[in-house]
Specification:
By secondary structure, this protein is α/β, with parallel strands linked by helices. Helices cover 51% and strands 11% of the residues.
Length: 416
């Protein structure tokens, strides 16, 4: 029997077929091996409508090129993910035209466990756009999410750098082979991405990027993500706006960063917001807050553990574990107390009014406790009755928002 990986690569390399048609063929025949085995009569009679040229290319059963690609990837340490593999992201698999094969360099994250957000924008980004893209990437990274972009000049590169600066995960989707760095100015950025994240493409190694590849690449960027953020885009022909269109077609959330009324780089973003096709992005923290619930408990706990270690002066690992165990013990006690009685302490109306109106109920509860003088993580966990990872995550978000800050080791309200 023909190896599955070989048949997937063979099918993906059929000229003139397209990812959407290939996906229909898989549904009609059940497997790439069955597509390979089908003769002209079976292909013509299949439930997938095919043009004569497509039938002709499927009748070419030569697998030499597919075998060469697999051998090349093996030598170069490039991972081949097929749509039938368990590591292939379910979110990408669900789009109408998923790539049959992904070529990956670096450490491929688990997109089914950790949510990803794409951040894209014009190559001719303004200083405002570059700063915003970098801040969004950093905020996503600090929250434990994946930042996806296209490694292009401008906003894309800034988003990757923001995620890397914050020590997080970022994935670059390329319009050429994963061994081809484009633009060449981003060779060092690509190296940095490969140290902790990954670069991915549906095109085999050695493929040079060209026009149509970018349009196809953009559907993967949005397809991997729960949401796409458009930072700056001058008009509807831009790649960032193509990503937004793909995201809308895929049923994903779209956000646009607003700009000045007369700023040409923000024209398309402002129009997306005006037409209701994209939500206005108020801040990176608001974006993170929207998708924080998609993070697995262990990721939130890891973020909380790191935050707690920073708070306690970077204790040694055994000491930090011991402290964390103590927090968990107090958490269990707090949950029991919360079930037995309602909290009686209420902040004054003036104090409550001083807090930002956009806070969630849980964030407001934490802020109000800090208003009352509760200044440490241990005290917050003991008083509010929420799980420790959740408390630490909320504290981190409030610090990012400028609602809380640390002063002499204790939490207080407001920025410095």
């Amino acid at each position: 029997m023909m190896p599955s990986r070989l048949s997937y690569v063979w099918l993906a390399q059929r000229n003139g077929l397209g990812a959407g048609t290939a996906a229909e063929l898989l549904r009609a025949f059940g497997s790439p091996e069955a597509v390979y085995a089908a003769d002209r009569a079976a292909l013509t009679a299949s439930a997938c409508p095919l043009r004569k040229a497509q039938v002709d290319t499927l009748c070419d059963k030569n697998t030499d090129e597919a075998a060469r690609i697999i051998e090349q990837c093996t030598r170069a340490g490039i991972q081949i993910l097929t749509i039938g593999d368990s590591a292939y992201p379910d979110r990408l698999r669900a789009i109408a035209d998923p790539p049959l094969v992904l070529y990956v360099r670096g450490s491929w994250p688990d997109f089914d466990v950790t949510p990803a957000v794409s951040v894209v924008g014009t190559r001719k980004a303004t200083p405002y756009g570059l700063h915003t893209a970098e801040e969004i990437g950093a905020a996503l990274a600090r929250a434990g999410m994946i930042t996806v972009s296209g490694m292009a000049l401008g906003a894309d590169g800034a988003a990757h750098r923001g995620a890397l600066r914050a020590g997080g995960l970022t994935v670059a989707v390329l319009a050429g082979g994963v061994d081809v760095c484009y633009p060449p100015q981003h060779r060092s950025l690509m190296g940095d991405i490969l140290l902790s994240g990954a670069v991915v493409s549906e095109y085999p190694p050695g493929t040079e990027p060209r026009g149509t590849h970018y349009h196809n690449r953009n559907r993967i960027i949005s397809g991997l993500s729960v949401a796409s953020v458009i930072v700056e885009a001058a008009d509807y022909r831009s790649g960032a706006l193509i990503t937004a269109r793909h995201a809308l077609d895929q049923g994903r959330d779209v956000y646009a960063v607003p700009g000045a009324l007369d700023a040409p780089q923000s024209r398309a973003c402002n129009e997306l917001i005006e037409k209701g096709e994209a939500a206005l992005l108020r801040s990176p923290q608001a974006l993170v807050r929207t998708y924080l619930g998609l993070l697995p408990d262990r990721t939130v706990e890891q973020q909380a553990r790191r935050a707690f270690q920073r708070q306690t002066g970077e204790r040694s690992a055994p000491a930090a574990r011991s402290a964390w165990d103590e927090i968990r013990r107090r958490e269990e006690q707090a949950e029991q107390r919360a079930k037995q009685a309602e909290k009686t302490e209420k902040p004054s109306a003036a104090a409550a009014a001083a807090l930002p109106a956009h806070l969630s109920d849980a964030e407001r509860q934490i802020a109000e406790l800090v208003q009352q003088g509760v200044g440490t993580a241990e005290e917050l966990i003991e008083r509010c009755g929420l799980p420790a990872p959740r408390v630490m995550s909320l504290v981190t978000m409030l610090e990012m928002d400028g609602v809380l800050r640390r002063e002499k080791g204790r939490l207080v309200l407001g920025r410095k």
